[in-house]
Amino acid sequence: MMQSISKLLKTKQAAAFLGVSESFLEKDRVQSGRVPFIKFGMRKGIRYREEDLQAFISSSRFRSTSEYSQEKSRGK
Asked: What global pTM score does this model have?
């Protein structure tokens, strides 16, 4: 069975998709790594898969600020 190929987005496109700044994604790559990315070669070959961005959105979903605080205190 052949897997479908995911659409790859550049940082600017991924930022628009998530509704965040390019700077947010750039900092995330260095500091936390919450949003998975693909790196091609040595120079500016950063891409994001749409399904990874969707998964990031889903994992960032909370029903209340107290639920968020509980997750954060557990280190997730």
From this structure: 0.73
- Distance between CA 55 and CA 53 in Å, rounded? 5
26-36-18 Cα angle (round to 5): 65
Residue 11, number of CB atoms within 10 A of its CB: 19
Please answer whether residues 2 and 41 qualify as being in contact, where contact means their C-beta atoms are separated by less than 8 angstroms.
Answer: no
64's tokens = 């209340």
Q: Is the dihedral of CA 70, 68, 10, 49 positive or negative?
A: positive
Outline where the chain has alpha helix (H).
11-18, 22-31, 50-59, 65-73
Would you say 9 and 50 are in contact if contact means Cβ atoms under 8 Å apart?
Answer: yes
- pLDDT greater at residue 73 or residue 6: 6
Distance CA 53, CA 25 (A): 11
